[in-house]
Automatic annotation (TrEMBL):
SUPFAM superfamilies: Glyoxalase/Bleomycin resistance protein/Dihydroxybiphenyl dioxygenase. InterPro entries: Glyas_Bleomycin-R_OHBP_Dase (IPR029068), Glyoxalase-like_dom (IPR025870), VOC_core (IPR037523). Transmembrane segments: none annotated. It comes from the Bacteria. This is VOC domain-containing protein. Gene3D superfamilies: 2,3-Dihydroxybiphenyl 1,2-Dioxygenase, domain 1 (3.10.180.10). Residues 8-150 form the VOC domain. It holds the Pfam family Glyoxalase_3.
Length: 285
């Protein structure tokens, strides 16, 4: 039985050392960045979002050490910056947590939290969420997974924040490096009730649900062959990750990325060293 309360990829969390510097870096890459958000005290984190449709990226930084953000701090200490976890959209986080509990897994949460949001007209509102996580040990390819229920989507998907100079529209794929693509893909498939599919180059794809972005597990060598000429320095052999983003206009993408752009076949890429530990690959929509 497929999970009823968890649908496809909602957002990718890029863990960064210096939140404001990371936001400025992504701004220089042509992304429209939300105002800085500060999460509830027990979370101890702050963020900037980069909104697409129907998904987004989140730049996340630790503002104060708490028990809740211990895994995120460990990630930064051990691996440096990069994609630390991927969120699914939860229809109902409470019910979703019970679904995975019924399968013998102990969920973390559900947890309620919020952050203040400055709306385009200058008024202050709140973005409210209820999340749950799969057990910390369940991290296929070294990337944790969780589910996020948006209680106030209107304060997250703000039209003014969804237009980007680099023409980014949505996430098409999340690529995760691992020495054992088939095993890690099978692990994820079991956790989210999706069927892995082997690709011709040895990578293994796992659909995330609906029309959302898919996961691709592959070795670092296979990743390099997909994007020849793009330096992969900084990506770990297990857990190094890339996002394939759909561009509405590759000429605009190329112009906005400027000197950070690296042409690789049909894609325009930003190496991980220039995107806070994450390889970005823009492709035509």
């Amino acid at each position: 039985m497929a999970l009823k309360n968890v649908i496809g990829i909602d957002h990718a969390v890029v863990m960064v050392q210096d939140l404001d510097k990371a936001a400025e870096n992504y701004r220089q890459l042509g992304f429209t960045i939300s105002p800085r958000g500060t999460h509830s005290a027990h979370m101890g984190t702050g963020n900037y979002t980069i909104m697409f449709d129907p998904d987004y990226m989140e730049l996340l930084g630790v503002l104060a050490a708490t028990e809740h953000n211990a895994p995120a701090r460990a990630f930064l200490d051990q691996r440096g910056e990069g994609i630390e976890r991927i969120a699914f959209t939860a229809v109902d986080s409470t019910a979703g947590a019970e679904e995975i509990r019924a399968r013998g897994l102990e969920p973390i949460g559900p947890t309620d939290f919020e952050r203040p949001v400055t709306l385009p007209d200058g008024t202050i509102s709140a973005a409210k969420f209820r999340t749950f996580m799969w057990p910390t040990a369940e991290a296929p390819g070294g990337v944790r997974i969780f589910a996020c229920q948006h209680k106030t989507p209107e304060t997250v998907w703000i039209p003014e924040l969804m237009k980007h100079a680099n023409a980014a529209k949505r996430i098409k794929q999340t690529l995760i490096a691992t020495p054992e693509p088939a095993k890690e893909a099978a692990d994820l498939g079991q956790l989210i009730d999706r069927e892995p599919k082997a690709e011709a180059d040895g990578a293994v794809t796992v659909p995330s649900g609906g029309d959302r972005a898919e996961f691709v597990y592959l070795t670092l060598e296979q990743l390099g062959k997909r994007y020849p000429g793009v330096p992969l320095a900084g990506l770990s052999e297990r857990g190094g990750a890339a996002l394939v983003l759909v561009s509405g206009d590759l000429a605009a993408t190329d112009k906005a990325l400027g000197s950070a752009a690296v042409r690789s076949g049909p894609a325009i890429c930003v190496p991980p060293a220039k995107a806070n530990g994450t390889l970005l690959a823009f492709v035509a929509g």
